[in-house]
Design goal:
Elements: H1 2-8, H2 11-22, H3 28-31, E1 40-44, E2 51-53, H4 55-59, E3 63-69, E4 75-82, H5 83-89, E5 105-111, E6 116-120, H6 121-124, E7 134-139, E8 142-143, E9 152-154, E10 168-175
Parallel strand pairs: 1-10
Antiparallel strand pairs: 1-2, 3-4, 4-7, 5-6, 5-10, 7-8, 7-9
The structure holds ligand MTE and molybdenum atom.
Residues 71, 111, 113, 115, 148, 160-162, 164-167 line the site of ligand MTE.
């Protein structure tokens, strides 16, 4: 009888702790990052305050297609919106509205797993670039797999895929420091 009680007692606090972790606000794992379904956050230089673009807001931007091989060399057609259009939709001041015409600004993209890549702002600006860097949400007509989506940056003609950031959560506009 006594044995039974001592064995059960330590389980109780653990049970309640497990219950508390089910509450999203108290669970460190769910607080660490915005859920992917929340869309994409745009912040930094040129913005009065950070903007959280919802999937519905992103869906309203003009859609474009980009063809490139995937990591296995298979030719794929990605579709989505221009990364530059995402910045504009967030209300970011860009180009000539930035110090030094934005020539020393870059966009730092961050993913759910902490992976990051940067793009010079001019690389994304249609007034400069001859290619479109995409915030894709579809590949060959299908929504991106959970491991890549809901949003992946697609750089059309780059030989390696290192800057094709999967599971993009945030874009930050940064001015290079002198
Ligand atoms: N979020 C995230 N995106 C990422 C990476 C990563 O580690 N995390 N690796 C990059 C690299 S180095 C490559 S080659 C491709 C690989 O894409 P794949 O895993 O879809 O083949 O994703 C790129 N995007
Ligand atoms: Mo890579």
């Amino acid at each position: 009888m006594t044995r039974k009680l001592t064995a059960a007692a330590p389980r109780f606090p653990l049970f309640f702790l497990a219950l508390l972790l089910l509450l999203p606000g108290l669970n460190p794992a769910s607080r660490a990052q915005t859920p992917a379904s929340a869309g994409v956050q745009v912040s930094g230089a040129g913005l009065a305050q950070p903007a959280q673009l919802s999937p519905a807001q992103l869906a309203k931007l003009p859609r474009l297609q980009v063809m490139r091989p995937d990591h296995d060399g298979k030719k794929r057609t990605y579709s989505g919106v221009a990364l530059y259009a995402v910045l504009t939709a967030a209300g970011a001041k860009l180009g000539a509205d930035l110090p030094r015409k934005g020539m020393a600004h870059y966009v730092q993209a961050s993913a759910a797993d902490g992976y990051q890549a940067v793009f010079a702002l001019a690389e994304l600006d249609p007034a400069f670039a001859t290619r479109t860097v995409l915030l894709a949400d579809r590949c060959d007509g299908q929504p991106l797999p959970a491991t890549a989506g809901p949003y992946q940056i697609i750089v059309p003609d780059e030989k390696k895929m290192g800057r094709c950031v999967r599971q993009v959560q945030a874009l930050r506009l940064v001015a290079a420091q002198p």
